[in-house]
Amino acid sequence: MTTLDQPTARSTTSGRPAKAGRHSIERAQGRMGAAFVSLYTLFLLAFGVLPMLYAIYLAFTKKGAFVGVDNFLKVFRDYRFWPAVEHVGIFLVVWLVMLVVLVVLLSLLVHSIGIRWLSTGTRFLFYIPGALAGASSVMLWLFVLDPTVSPVGFMLRAFGSTSLVDAVQVDRLPFVLAVIAFWTGAGGWIVVMYGALNNIPKDVIEAARVDGARPIRIAWSIQIPLMRKWIAYMVIMSFAAGTQLFVEPRVLSQASRGVVGQDYSLNQLAFLYAFKQSDFNGSAAISLMLLVVALVLSVYFVFKGGLFERV
Amino acid sequence: MDGAVGRMTPGRWLGRAFAILILIVFVLFFIVPLVWLVLAPTKTDRQLLLEMPFAFGSFETLAANWTTLVTFQKGLIWTWIGNSAFYCLAALAITLIISIPAGYAMALTEFRGRRTLLAATLIVMLVPSTALVLPIFLELSAVKLIGNPLAAILPFSFFPFGVYLTYIYFSTAISRDLLDAARVDGANEFQVFTKIAMPLATPVIALVGFFNFTGNWNNYFLPYVTLPGRKSPVQVGLAELLSNVPAFNPTNAASTTISLSSLALGTLLAIAPVLIVFLFAQRYLVSGMTAGGIKG
Amino acid sequence: MNLLRTTVALSAIFVAGAAFAQDATGITVWADANRQPAVEAFIAAHPEVPVNLVVDDGSSGASGTFQTKISLADQAGEGWPDVVFSTQNNDAAWATKETNGVQPFAQVLNEGFLGDDFLKGFTPGALDPVTVDGKVYGLRNDLAPVLFWYNKTLLDGFGYTAPTTWEEYQALGDKLAADHPGYFLGGIGDAFEGPYIYYWSGQAPIFQLEGDTFKSNTTDPKAVKVSNLIDHMVANKSLTLDSVFGASFVATAANLVAIPGPAWYAGALFQNPGGVNAKAGDWVAAPPLYWEDGEKVTGNVGGGVWYASSHTTNPEAVKTFLQFIVSDPKVAGTGGLPAYQAAADAWLDGQAASGFYAGDFKAAINTAASSVWNGWGYPNFSPETSWAKIITPGLVAGKTMTDLSSDWQQEMKNEAQVVGYTVE
């Protein structure tokens, strides 16, 4: 559910200076605060920090001995690595463009619906596919993509696909994967963007309208600029999530009997290193690279993105 | 914008019709596959191939597909669903126990390292959970926990987004003055939490619970590597089921075990809990939960 | 929220979890759906051995299911099956090796585990692909030499004679394409057909192993000959791009005139209501096709293998199971030619007696079984993955083997390199 992992735009009042003469209460608070976060801190260390450290250790060692960047060099020289980078790259471009254009468009349109229940209902319909994430959404899309059973078989045939193998050819796959990801995740983002639009003061828009601005102009010069932070947030989150592509190509590979390779994405490659070649060090090297990308994006966004003002 | 009553030039009218058309197309895009999925189990494979995609089959066929599915390897589907329920509910309980107090403490108390913890939470929260799957697998494997239910439950219970939500909620919903007043009345810190904060926390508990449960239920990659075999949750099982469908693995054609329609039914069953949660949470999600309005 | 109540609920869940985590007794068997009836026959014959059958894909298409799931179990330190069936016969390449400190998965089956008398019952050479340094690591389910199947009724009706060479096979394709369009001579839509049926039979040196060196040469004249045959017959549609088990193949099966293929087509394709569903007396199993200028050799498509786990806690049950499954005259071979000699004889006699196949079924099978070309390699990867990745989509997109074969060769070499072979 990364798509809805949204921070708040509202700033609140906190961190006010403590009043003097209340040291004992503050000490009690400190003790209590520390106690309350202790379990969580433990989990943060165990499942956030420690895995990263362990991945770093594995990525730079082999059989326990330090080997420098050998594992990385090995991965770079692997004939499957660069194609996987390319696959993920193309997918990301297709998906992000699709996401930005359509999510912005749809949230503006939904926001312009004046009838309350209709607007809510539409958002809900957009959102409901989010219930099918992971394997189940791919499973459903297998049916949609197989021209023999597909409810939209006529559309597939219009694109020249007469079989599943044809529909998931490597050069079509980025689009297929992007459509699946969009179908599952876009609704959540539309809900988020809708909220962002609601936060735009009504009088700003009213003033523009009185000045004779048309809806398209209002959208372009008022609404979209005010949504920028949220769009950036969506792009960064989606970029980070998109680099992690795993379950979709994996299930498609299974269903297409290998036409979609088992080494299509980077995470699949890391998986093959671990479970097919029994090379945990190589696997850790790939994971670490992916992790670094995600971390850099996330750190940058937390400190520069402007959504988390109180940090 | 519909404030412009009565000034509908042909251009405007066209623009509006176009907007409605786009909305309808996308509503169909999001809903048609789901509708198809709901109808598919009522048909036989032959009907799926030949008949109108949105025709209703029959209840007899539905019952037959149901029987195929639930008798598949002696009701393996129930084992999978049971596993999912066990892992997700256990993780849900632990998540609430650790996140609610942590978010509260970060929002309303001062302690050393608060800002560091908050920053770390935000950073880890934005890292996609899949990025940590192989590192977590390697770690759990080093401590010999792979194959133990804890190998799913513990990572599932680490939910920084939940902590963040709680933190935001308590920062905005409860004023420090209220807590101070309780302290003046002689309540100790723990009582302040249980008597003042907890009664107000229901919305955020629901929210954290919703995101935690749905996210974990749909998680494939982590349990796929940490809980192989019969301990798999239903998402992993679904992919397993796929290899028994002749259409996608023709070498099994000799003895059809699972038909396409049964697979569709399996998919439906696998998402049912999340779908139900979605339907019930509808109000929160679509109106209350819109950006910033985390107060519910 | 009431913390106390949640804690209680939580502990209840844990208790429930502990109860469900217990494994059943008896033996766990992983096999594909085609093996299911045989396993059920065992259950009926040996009620004293509880069997927990887990149906998987049998690693068909070199999906790697077997190896991946064992790797996962190795990590878990539990969850190994007692017996595994794999459609691939190169699993010995990894299952006999220790990985990350975990003992090799495959149990050594000779040297005392199973009696030598029993093992001697296999057709000579049947256990070669699963024998490493004199240790036998698996039992072959069936032998899968490629022979030539044709529909006598159709051929006679058209007034054609059955081909005996690949050249005549191609010529027959031309005649059909010209005079009886829609009728066809086989398929190339699965990953196993191209490499194992066509290239292997043509002695094409595209998948060879010498020591630790992997060799592949798709430009060798023998390989080019096969590529040209495929291109020619795909172009005139006498070869279909559908999977032989797929819905569209089955739908057009009445137009199938002939098909080169392994012995297990007998049960899995012809005598299968979900497959060709042949009428008794229509089909002939003929000796394999040869190239006019080549040796009289043929290809081989798998012939699955049963492995026992070295982790099993129930070796006696495993022995009982293995002996039954490979040698019981009723189920051994699971629709193909049993690798166990006595069972093979019984199966061949039964087929001959039933008269389902016209012609001399037994002689054709025996000829094929004794002429499998031995130049094909069994490294720790399969030509099927590269075929599926490069050739299947390529052919569907209208490219030819001639266009694709150098990419294919490169992909195989790359795969070889990744799993540690020297590549020439």
The N- to C-terminal Cα distance of chain A equals: 24 Å
Oligomer: heterotrimer
* Binned strand content of chain A: under 5%
- Given as residue ranges, the uncertain stretches of chain A (5+ residues, pLDDT < 50) are 1-21
Largest interface: A-B, 133 and 118 residues
The radius of gyration over CA of chain B amounts to: 25 Å
What is the total tally of β strands of chain B?
0
Sum up the structure in keywords.
heterotrimer, B: 296 residues, mainly alpha, 14 helices, 69% helix, disordered C terminus, C: 424 residues, alpha+beta, 5-stranded mixed β-sheet, 3-stranded antiparallel β-sheet, 12% strand, globular
Q: How would you characterize the overall build of this protein?
A:
- The complex is a heterotrimer of chains A (311), B (296) and C (424).
- Helices cover 69% and strands 1% of the residues of chain A.
- Chain A has 311 residues and is mainly alpha-helical.
- The radius of gyration of chain A is 24 Å and the shape is flat.
- Chain B is an all-alpha fold and 296 residues long.
- Chain B is globular, with a radius of gyration of 25 Å.
- Chain C has 424 residues and is an alpha+beta fold.
- Helices cover 41% and strands 12% of the residues of chain C.
- Chain C has helices spanning 3-20, 36-45, 65-76, 92-95, 116-120, 152-158, 166-179, 193-201, 221-235, 247-251, 265-270, 315-327, 341-354, 361-369, 383-396, 401-418; strands at residues 27-32, 51-56, 83-86, 131-132, 135-136, 139-140, 142-143, 146-151, 208-210, 213-215, 258-262, 283-286, 305-308, 337-338, 422-423.
- In chain C, the strands form 5 sheets. Chain C has a 5-stranded mixed sheet with strand order 2-1-3-13-6, with helices on one face.
- In chain C, a hairpin with a 2-residue loop joins strand 9 and strand 10 (213-215).
- The chains are: A mainly alpha (311), B mainly alpha (296), C alpha+beta (424).
- Chains in contact: A-B, A-C, B-C.
- The interface between B and C is large, with 42 and 50 residues.
